[in-house]
Specification:
The complex is a heterodimer. Chain A contains 5 helices and 6 strands; from the N terminus they run βββαβββαααα. Chain A is an alpha+beta fold. Chain A folds into 2 domains: 76 residues, Ubiquitin-like (UB roll) (Roll); 64 residues, [2Fe-2S]-binding domain (DNA polymerase, domain 1, Orthogonal Bundle), CATH 1.10.150.120. Chain A starts with a strand and ends with a helix. By secondary structure, chain B is α+β, with helices and mostly antiparallel strands. Chain B starts with 6 loop residues before the first strand and ends with a helix. The interface between A and B is medium-sized, with 35 and 35 residues.
Chain lengths: 161, 272
């Protein structure tokens, strides 16, 4: 049994955007804080810290999940993807470019999480319709846009392959 | 909004998990998806000494039809059950209700049994289990016991699970031929906690109605056709809802009457 004692640091190994990472973490350390404070990956934002707002959404083994409801210790051996991994050598990826084009963000606080959810949806359901896109976006709170621009951005990318 | 310190245990099999519970069950919490417990721990409403992570246990990953019920292992996520190809045929009511649980992102971690263990009064799965008269399978080093839904949830966020026990599976009876079901919910935002959720299953003789979000735990009533407004009104009052920051008791009663009527009509239409 893997048993990690409270108050002590334990080695955690995983990949972050394809790069192998090995760091120490206490059991109580949230994945969201691990990414930001220990790995300097500030792209993942921290909002409510109880799973409601969606700002901290990252992909773990392909699934978009809340980083504030996972502990660093739980991602041992897993593949983590964050917003830092989305851009291509040529610049923004299609979803990011569409968000820019359709004014899918203003302050940008919710954007990294939304991009990670839409990334999984696009990978699994590239023809998802507006209702499905809105259903997935319901797991994110955006206080700037009224969501219209975000939905338009997604519609610009989905159903195009 | 950070959890208090805890030991993190990741048992290799169910026996190791049960041994840990037998030894330290009074200060341990079992965690599968952690979508409710994690939030509780971040808010320090739960401060276990040891967190037992069962998400990886192979014995708890199965969805199978056993003795007329869909048996869902304790590590099965809500998303995995929703994607189970047989679900819409075996129990269409669950297929209707699952998309209302949390969000796309939380359903991919959150488990079916975890939601039952959390026993939130406004949750969809305790309502489904109560309405369908399902069962919960508990294990400890002392043995295995199967508890009926009506005996499992004992109040708001309270269940009959003993300190040394854990849920290993939930059993939802498969839909019978000649029955129909319906579900509707009102929440502030899709995926938020239900202000009122109403589910029903019926045949040509009778209809059973279940309501979540109003009382400490789901309320269920058996009614015969035709269902009179007075019967629905009596049920709305009998649930005994209270005012809170989301809605008044009066508004909740009105929702029970209105959504209840809509759900009853849907079941009736599907049967005719």
């Amino acid at each position: 049994m893997r048993y990690l004692e409270a108050g002590k640091r334990h080695t955690v190994r995983f990949t972050l955007n394809g790069r192998a990472v090995e760091r120490e973490a206490e059991p109580r350390l949230l994945l969201s804080d691990f990414l930001r404070q220990h790995l300097g990956a500030f792209g993942t934002h921290v909002g409510c810290e109880h799973g409601s707002c969606g700002a901290c959404t990252v992909r773990v083994d392909g699934k978009a999940v809340r980083a504030c409801l996972l502990y660093a210790a739980q991602v041992e051996g897993k593949a983590i993807e964050t917003v830092e991994g989305l851009a291509t050598p040529d610049g923004l990826n299609a979803l990011q470019a569409a968000m820019q084009k359709h004014h899918g963000l203003q302050c940008g606080f919710c954007t990294p999480g939304i991009l990670m959810s839409l990334s999984q949806l696009h990978a699994e359901e590239p023809d998802a319709d507006e209702a499905r896109i809105r259903d997935v976006l319901s797991g994110h709170i955006c206080r700037c846009t009224g969501y219209h621009g975000i939905v338009q951005a997604a519609l610009d990318v989905f159903g195009k392959d | 909004m950070k959890p208090a310190a805890f030991d993190y245990a990741c048992p290799d099999n169910l026996d190791e998990a049960l041994a840990l519970l037998a030894d330290r069950g009074d200060r341990a919490r079992v965690c599968a998806g952690g979508q409710s417990l994690g939030a509780m721990m971040n808010m320090r409403l739960a401060t276990p000494d040891v967190l037992i992570d069962i998400a990886g246990l192979r014995e708890l990953q199965a969805i199978a039809v056993v003795d007329g019920a869909i048996e869902v292992g304790a590590a099965v996520t809500q998303d995995a059950l929703l994607r189970w190809p047989e679900l819409v045929v075996r129990q269409p009511l669950l297929a209707r209700m699952l998309p209302w649980i949390g969000h796309y992102q939380t359903r991919q971690r959150g488990t079916v049994c975890g939601s039952l263990a959390h026993a939130d009064p406004s949750s969809e799965l305790p309502l489904a289990l109560a309405l369908l008269r399902g069962e919960v399978v508990l294990r400890s080093q002392r043995g295995r016991r199967v508890v009926a839904a009506a005996d499992f949830q004992t109040g708001m966020m309270a269940t009959a699970t003993a300190d040394d026990e854990m849920i290993v599976a939930a059993r939802f009876p498969v839909a019978q031929a000649g029955t129909a079901s319906a579900f509707h919910e009102v929440a502030q935002r899709h995926g938020d906690f239900a202000i009122v959720a109403v589910a029903a299953v019926g045949d040509k003789h009778a209809i059973r109605l279940g309501v979540g979000g109003v009382a400490d735990m789901p309320g269920v009533i058996d009614l015969t056709w035709p269902v009179a407004d007075a019967a629905l009104n009596d049920f709305a009052w009998a649930l005994g809802g209270a005012d809170d920051q989301h809605a008044t008791a009066r508004y909740r009663r009105e929702l029970v009457r209105r959504i209840g009527r809509r759900v009853i009509e849907e079941v009736g239409d599907a049967l005719s």
